[in-house]
Amino acid sequence: MSANAHESWVALMEDGQLAEMMLDRADEDRLLGDIYLGKVEAVLPGIQAAFVDIGTDKAGFLHVSDLDMGDKDDDNGGGARRRRDRKYPPIQDTIKKGQEIIVQVTKEPISTKGPRLTAEISLPGRFLVYMPGSSRVGVSRKIEDREERARLRKLAKGVLPKDKGGIIVRTVSEELNQETFQKDFNRLSSNWDKVQKKRQGVKAPSPLHREAKLISGVIRDLFSNRFESITVDHKGIHNEILQYVRGVAPELEDRVKLYTGSESLFDKHGVEEEFQATLQKRAVLKSGGYIIIEPTEALVSIDVNTGRYKGKKDPESTILKTNLEATREIARQLRLRDIGGIIVCDFIDMESQENRDKVLNELRAHLGKDRARTKAFEVSSLGLVEMTRQRVRPSLFQTLTDSCDHCEGMGRVYTPATVVRQIERSIRRVSVKGDEKKLLIRMHPEVALRIMEEEPDFIRKLGQTTRLKLDMRDDPLLREDEFRILSGAAQTDVTSRYVAA
User: Fold this and answer.
1) What is the pTM of this model?
2) Which secondary-structure segment (H or E) carries 429?
3) Angle at 13 between CA 319 and CA 2, to 5 degrees
């Protein structure tokens, strides 16, 4: 975990390889999980939905299926299907224009769409998810042991007062006792009481409850004995994590590490370089094959190619090996890039139905590691696999880049905010290496304007912390996302030495 005053990053490593990247920026509010008192702007009977003003730039979208909690069972995989099949009363008979309503954000604004909302409030804790409008008790599907599921369900029912809502038992709750459940439920119930109390004293639109920030949410939702360690480079956040872990899982305290090295934490573990590769279209396979990932407005296409890998004599065997290797990389890239929505994978054509089944089963096995809900359908005769992956926020590619004006929106460039952070990381690398003393940073005028307006002390503070003499100049001849690092009185270009490829 790496954090500063402007942004927080979480890198999840599995078997020494980067598996997930998550970003939170101070100047870009995260809405996911936040609870608001909203005001209904419009009710649309034609699509059985409403637009609700929650105080954001774009009104939130509320579908009729997200109005009535009912008694849907969160304990098995059939809940979503029954939810789609259920008959709902007409939305125009349920809510009216101008009405105030408590809603929660389930999907961040993406592209031209506003946030997706639900009136089915859920409050996540360390071990439980509390749903004040429900009446069912469910257990995470990832807890597979029947006896353990039954035990956890009984414990959960024991801490839930009558007519006080519903509960889902989370995956990290295995082998826990009733006392632990009771403490977690009391915290969540108290939070809901605060939401209801705050609702009485405000007018719509108004926030009622903010979801935990990125790092706090990751610790709450993911950190368990399955992790070897968590390393963070910010002392204040390290102390916050320790305080939380001591309260809910003291046995994990010694796995929380503070990094104090001079080299960037992400550079030390190769995270920066590996992540930069995920912003490219091509991902190389070990065999010499590769996949091409192309995001579009409607869907994401993924194309599998053998590349340099020609195999031996049997073409079908070569194709099968490449396709099987591609399944692992596709599943990894979906997580790493946080790609969601509709995905079409174009595997290399296979004649054998048996081989198609092998590829599909392998893909589904790798997708099973994904925390986001995914579903892969059958392999078509053309080698196509249609997939869906839960999308709750813009992908990192969308967050970190803008449309490129020079190619009329066909490409992407890094945003000024992203370039500023790249400059900061590069200058810190210069400081660690110790070969330079005086630097001039040239950047596009848009980036320079961003610094002057949003971070006027950027150069001064960076110079103090790195002990380098720094200056900056705007250069309209550079691309929007390009910058140059020039050293000494001769202004020697040393950019390539310090900027991640």
Assistant:
1) 0.77
2) helix 416-433
3) 135
